[in-house]
């Protein structure tokens, strides 16, 4: 890997760092505004919906210009959404604008990897890219929790910035990080690749995009890879919400402390990604499928853990299993997509399916929280009482965790069965 690749990693790290910190800051802002609990799930939903709506157009946009320039423009959109949150736009709407920029950004950031490197380096490159992304999740989650937490609020009260709340101060800092990401984008190498002219006819773009969707789903290796990554990202987005509520209720954590558990999951994902990148070649990508089944059962075991050290270890293992099984399959999906339709279009199809999975799973979580939450009880510990008293009740955690874990394991078993059938039919290699 050379300097240009590390520049791409730096740009991705800064942008993802701000995205993840902004999510925590927006949660704190919603809590400060006493928004109902289901708004927390809808925050992710609003961010993600752009990935689905823009999918027919994002790939064409990414392939029409040098990827570094596309990434810089998209960072500008994210910055605009961040500023919108500062000037009083509802957090759901402002975070949706940030999601709009992220949706257009994604085909460029992944597409440049397939253009920049030979296919035999894709698993290793994805390990690095996932490592940078996961590091951004870790530091972004911690940064957002700290900046929007009570300690910063108490410090602000002693400074000339006392007119700012902690969540607003956090958002100001994140605007500066988006600016830094845009500056790094300027140094991403311009590659000698054929740029495809962008079409402005929506009907043409939708037809072209749908042809790409069908083509990738009909490819045996692409189909299974897409199924796994769709499940992974839907589960991963929902897991952030589940872990926060679980840590508050089961472990007695505050929101600031609960975000550290998300960071532990991310550390595990980074470790799993590195191990997969080092030991799993592209032609053996499907051998990691059992890790997904194990991850589902590990999620269910959350119900029986009340010790903080044991909980941290469990979150580390859950993250490691996730990183281990998703990185090789993500690389396989990128390789097949690049071979079938080009980098930008391939990533747009991937984003469409994966974020449709997020919308379904996060939307289901929001509905469960809205319609099945139970009233607070007098014997609740202080942190849970303080956190949930303005949110309308306690989420149905037993049903959410058991259903979530079983869904993950059962779907991974079905995917493993389809893989074995594909090997028996000679459509894939064992």
From TrEMBL:
Q: Which CDD domains match?
A: MFS_MefA_like
Location in or out of the cell: Cell membrane
Q: Tell me if Transmembrane helix is a UniProt keyword of this record.
A: yes
> Per its UniProt record, what InterPro entries does this chain match?
MFS, MFS_trans_sf
Q: Which residues are listed as membrane-spanning?
A: 6-30, 42-62, 77-106, 168-188, 224-252, 258-276, 288-306, 312-333, 354-373, 393-415
**How does the UniProt record describe the way this protein sits in the membrane?**
Multi-pass membrane protein
* UniProt keyword annotations, A-Z: Cell membrane, Membrane, Transmembrane, Transmembrane helix, Transport
Recorded superkingdom: Bacteria
| Protein name as it appears in the record | Lysophospholipid transporter LplT
What taxonomic classification does the UniProt entry list for its organism? Bacteria, Pseudomonadati, Pseudomonadota, Betaproteobacteria, Neisseriales
């Amino acid at each position: 890997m050379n300097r240009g690749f590390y520049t791409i990693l730096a740009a991705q790290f800064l942008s993802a760092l701000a995205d993840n910190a902004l999510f925590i800051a927006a949660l704190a802002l919603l809590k400060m505004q006493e928004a109902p609990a289901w708004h927390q799930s809808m925050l992710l939903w609003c961010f993600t919906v752009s990935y689905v709506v823009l999918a027919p157009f994002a790939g064409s946009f990414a392939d029409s210009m040098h990827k570094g320039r596309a990434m810089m423009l998209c960072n500008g959109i994210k910055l605009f959404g961040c500023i919108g949150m500062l000037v009083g736009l509802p957090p759901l709407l402002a975070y949706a604008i940030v999601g709009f920029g992220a949706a257009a950004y994604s085909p460029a950031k992944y597409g440049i990897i397939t253009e920049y490197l030979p296919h035999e380096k894709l698993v290793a490159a994805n390990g690095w890219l996932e490592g940078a992304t996961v590091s951004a999740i870790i530091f972004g989650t911690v940064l957002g929790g700290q900046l929007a937490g009570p300690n910063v609020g108490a410090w602000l009260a002693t400074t000339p910035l006392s007119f700012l709340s902690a969540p607003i101060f956090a958002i100001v800092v994140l605007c500066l990080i988006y600016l830094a990401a845009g500056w790094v984008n300027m140094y991403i190498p311009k590659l000698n690749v054929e740029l495809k002219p962008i079409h402005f006819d929506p009907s043409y773009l939708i037809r072209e995009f749908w042809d790409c969707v069908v083509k990738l789903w009909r490819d045996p290796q692409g189909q299974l890879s897409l199924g796994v990554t769709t499940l992974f990202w839907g589960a991963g987005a929902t897991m952030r919400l589940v872990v926060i509520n679980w840590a508050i209720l089961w472990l007695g954590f505050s929101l600031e402390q609960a975000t550290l558990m998300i960071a532990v999951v991310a550390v595990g994902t980074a470790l799993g990604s590195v191990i997969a990148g080092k030991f799993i070649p592209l032609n053996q990508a499907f051998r990691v499928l059992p890790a997904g089944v194990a991850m589902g059962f590990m999620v269910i075991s959350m119900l029986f853990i009340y010790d903080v050290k044991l909980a941290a270890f469990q979150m580390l293992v859950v993250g490691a299993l996730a990183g281990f099984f998703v990185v090789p399959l993500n690389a396989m999906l990128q390789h097949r997509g690049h071979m079938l339709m080009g980098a930008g279009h391939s990533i747009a199809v991937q984003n469409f399916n994966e974020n449709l999975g997020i919308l379904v799973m996060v939307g289901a979580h929001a509905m469960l929280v809205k319609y099945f939450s139970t009233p607070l009880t007098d014997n609740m510990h202080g942190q849970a009482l303080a956190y949930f008293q303005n949110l309308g009740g306690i989420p149905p955690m037993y049903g959410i965790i058991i259903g979530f874990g079983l869904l993950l394991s059962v779907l991974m078993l079905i995917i493993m069965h389809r893989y074995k059938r594909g090997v028996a039919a000679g459509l894939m290699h064992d």
